[in-house]
Amino acid sequence: MTTTEFIVILGGAALGYWLVAVVWPLWRDRGDAPPGPALFEADPPWHEVLDVAEDADRNTIDAAHQAKRAEHLPERVAHLSADVRNQAQRRIMQIDRAYAAAMRELGFGRRDGSGER
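^ thats the sequence. predicted structure below, dont judge the formating
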């Protein structure tokens, strides 16, 4: 390999690096398209999702969780459109996340007694 070939290879590598590191991000972030919707929205506080007071006891939270899950079961809307079924599934997931957040925040353990207050 001659010195000229080596210099050409180094120059090509430097030019390629510059294109990827400097020009491509500028070209990609031109701002032509308006920003899309947020990927996800933050859940409301757990007590709002479960419709209980912030200082509710474990039994009240458990009962509210079960009632909300029963109210929004995807099986209840299985005969409806896919959008409605997906919305029901997302709501069930939100209810479950709220229940988990309540258990974490209030320091309750699993129902088998480990960590129970």
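The chain is about 60% helix and 0% strand.
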